UniProtKB/TrEMBL annotation:
GO terms for molecular function: glutamate dehydrogenase (NADP+) activity. GO terms for biological process: glutamate biosynthetic process. This is Glutamate dehydrogenase, NADP-specific. It comes from anaerobic digester metagenome. Keywords: Oxidoreductase. SMART domains: ELFV_dehydrog. PANTHER family: NADP-SPECIFIC GLUTAMATE DEHYDROGENASE 1-RELATED. It is an enzyme of class 1 (oxidoreductase).
Length: 448
């Protein structure tokens, strides 16, 4: 039989060959496969049944035309995607991203990550992801609505409460989910939980809006306890100013940290007295303006052009909550030189492999996205549960369940890392723990 290293190398080569020009997908797969060597050594049956070859190949990939008419009466055409990656442990589950950078490789990296993340939640949800290269920025509400209706007019055939349940991601929030859900209902006449992140008046769950950001901080809090530390008095820098970043900042503040910088894709603000979140919410959630506007409300804050510069701000905690590969090796080195003690990933794959090496070589506490940002999708699964039960839990009930899930993910991730000889390495722990459950379910279900 081939050695584990050889098996992994061969699968990776096949992934590169079969999926050319998809660097983000290669990056996500490589990081996971590299963690699995000791697993493959212990489980030759995974090799015999082609688990690795199967887990890197999406079950189904949909690409479709999304035509819509803009406010000037002109026809616009975007591309829609839904990648149904793995349904071994439950219906496909994962968000939709609307951003001009979206392409198949990005959706596949997100779908692959989602499969292992959803496994870590301990809940019965498989992995999927979708989206479009549509840019909601600068579009009117009616344009966004027409786009969403056209997108759903194609996608509705492939989703369903027990089939595939989309949600939000970059560029898809409450407004978009509402329009998408409305069109789904109109086309199918079904009123069921086909989306999560729905509005509270039509089946959404209390706590879902806050879940990813809050969950990240619950995870960090639990990790810091293991090192006799807490969030109290720590200075935090949080990239992004969208859904994840805002509620990460809110919980960080509640737990006693001082958040001094936040960003958007144009630049970052630095407010040494602490970011005023009410202002950020007003600018981002209500007015949909640029973060630069913050200075008009708080003239003592600084604004700097360029989003990368945020990592030059001195901090104890760095929480990347914007997008993939936003912390490169150079930024990681600057953070370390400035005394960062922990890095908590809120976005998906925000640190490059080189950046992760810098953190690990310098003994910085590091929480990988698929474990520490799993609170969003976990709470989506709680929304699905409430929809099935025709019940609505209180905010406190949902929040307590979320906290419990994040604590359990941290405990399991760190336990599995130790069991496999990588004590303290949560990257390895999350990859192995997430993989094992999916692999086990795939083994049980035969070669499908
Ligand atoms: P939002 O659209 O609400 O916010 C995204 C934020 O990141 C904005 O501030 C945006 O700035 C910034 N951003 C987006 N793309 C880029 C880019 N290419 N360069 C620099 N900044 C960028 O999205 P979310 O907060 O929902 O998502 C943020 C991250 O968290 C993503 O990686 C997502 O996959 C991940 N995530 C989201 C979950 C959720 O429940 N929403 C759950 C788990 C992970 P601008 O406005 O200028 O574009
Ligand atoms: O990356 C993610 O986990 C999300 N965007 C949330 C997915 C979901 O189905 O709630």
């Amino acid at each position: 039989m081939k050695a584990a290293e050889q098996v992994i190398g061969d699968v990776m080569e096949q992934v590169r060959k079969r999926n050319p020009n998809e660097p983000e997908f290669h990056q996500a797969v490589l990081e996971v496969l590299e963690s699995l060597e000791p697993v493959i050594e212990r489980h030759p049956e995974f090799v015999e049944t082609g688990i690795l070859e199967r887990i890197v190949e999406p079950e189904r990939q949909l690409i479709f035309r999304v035509p819509w008419i803009d406010d000037n009466g002109r026809v616009q055409v975007n591309r829609g995607f839904r990648v149904q990656f793995n349904s071994a442990i439950g219906p496909y589950k994962g968000g939709l991203r609307f951003h001009p950078s979206v392409n198949l490789g990005i959706i596949k990296f997100l779908g692959f990550e989602q499969t292992l993340k959803n496994s870590l939640t301990g809940l019965p949800i498989g992995g999927g992801k979708g989206g479009s290269d549509f840019d909601p920025k600068g579009k009117s509400d009616f344009e966004v609505m027409r786009f969403c209706q056209s997108f759903m007019t194609e996608l509705y055939r492939y989703v369903g409460a027990d089939v595939d349940v989309p949600a939000g991601d970059i560029g898809v929030g409450a407004r978009e989910v509402g329009y998408l859900y409305g069109q789904y209902k109109r086309l199918t006449t079904l009123y069921h939980g086909v989306f999560t992140g729905k509005g509270l008046s039509y089946g959404g769950s209390l706590g879902r809006t806050q879940a990813t950001g809050y969950g990240l901080l619950y995870f960090l809090e639990e990790m810091l306890k293991d090192y006799d530390q807490s969030l109290k008095g720590k200075t935090a820098v949080i990239s992004g100013s969208g859904n994840v970043a805002i509620y990460a900042a809110e919980k960080a503040q509640q737990l006693g940290a001082l958040v001094v910088a936040m960003s958007d894709s144009n630049g970052y603000i630095y407010d040494p007295d602490g970011i005023k979140l009410d202002t950020i919410k007003q600018i981002k959630e209500v007015e949909r303006k640029r973060i630069k506007v913050y200075r008009e409300h708080h003239p003592s804050a600084q604004y700097h052009e360029g989003s990368k510069g945020i990592w030059t701000v001195k901090c104890d905690l760095a929480l990347p909550c914007a997008t993939q590969n936003e912390i490169d090796e150079e930024s990681a080195r600057i953070l370390v030189a400035n005394g960062v003690t922990a890095v908590g990933e809120g976005a998906n794959m925000p640190s490059t492999p080189e950046a992760i090496k810098v953190f690990q070589n310098n003994k910085i506490l590091f929480t990988p996205a698929k474990a520490s940002n799993a609170g969003g999708v976990a709470t989506s699964a709680l929304e699905m549960t409430q929809n099935s039960m025709r019940l609505a839990w209180t905010f406190e009930e949902v929040d307590a369940k979320l906290k419990d899930i994040m604590v359990r993910i941290y405990r399991q991730t760190s336990k599995v890392a130790k069991e496999y000889g990588f004590e303290g390495d949560l990257v390895k722990g999350a990859n192995i723990a997430g993989f094992l459950k999916v692999a086990d379910a795939m083994m049980a279900q035969g070669i499908v």
